[in-house]
Amino acid sequence: MQSTNPKPEKPVLFWSGGKDSYLALLEWQSNENLEPILITTYDDESGVVPFQEIPISRIQRQALKLELPLITIPLSHPVNNRSYLSTLKIEFTSAPYRVTDLIFGDIHLQDIREWREKEFGNLGFKCHFPIWKKSTEELLTLLEKQKKVTVKLRSVSESHRNRIKPGMTFNRKFIESLPDDIDPFGEYGEFHTEVIFD
């Protein structure tokens, strides 16, 4: 009896809709790796990606522009780590692809990277961090090379809204205007962004 064809292998990129996941995608693609599936979790009541505050419908449009498959996963927020990991494991197992590699847009938060490597490693996945420890200049230059792409601030923490506001354009001029207590890429939650494809 002839065996069934195995699932084709596909890496998964955790897609927030913002600049970090977009930069991770660009860096991943530049190394001629397999094209990834995008995966986005969102609040099942509001239909919005937490923190980024991007409606899932806009995430779907981004995936269409990028011409990449997208898996969207509704979660009841707040969600604990155990149910989060369990849900992702189920989704990856049932996907029409064989998933072994996970891609993240983390830049320099060591504790988050270590958590991902430990927890997803325990589930049998290998984690990749294409933009890890890349400099602000390097990442900004990569963004500037992308024509017909604009990055806007989508959400801003309450403590910084007197200086930066949703809707502002994330670019070199914006970064140069930031005070020293705000990370240039908002890595400590100062702000979150949305990638807009013209």
Describe the protein.
The chain is an alpha/beta fold and 198 residues long. It has helices spanning 19-30, 56-66, 81-94, 110-122, 136-144, 172-177, and strands at residues 12-14, 37-43, 48-49, 54-55, 70-75, 101-103, 126-128, 149-156, 191-197. It has a 5-stranded parallel β-sheet with strand order 5-2-1-6-7, with helices on both faces. Helix 4 links the parallel strand 6 and strand 7 (126-128). It is globular. The protein starts with 11 loop residues before the first strand and ends with a strand.
What is the rounded Rg? 17 Å
Q: How many H/I helical runs? A: 6
Helix content: 25-40%
Number of DSSP-assigned strands: 9
End-to-end CA span: 51 Å
Q: Which consecutive residue ranges, at least 5 long each, have pLDDT under 50?
A: none
Helix/sheet category: alpha/beta
Q: Which strand order does the major sheet show?
A: 5-2-1-6-7
- The sequence of SSEs as H and E is EHEEEHEHEHEHEHE
Strand content: 15-25%
> What characteristic shape results from the CA principal axes?
globular
Summarize the biggest pleated sheet: 5 strands, parallel
Mean pLDDT: 94
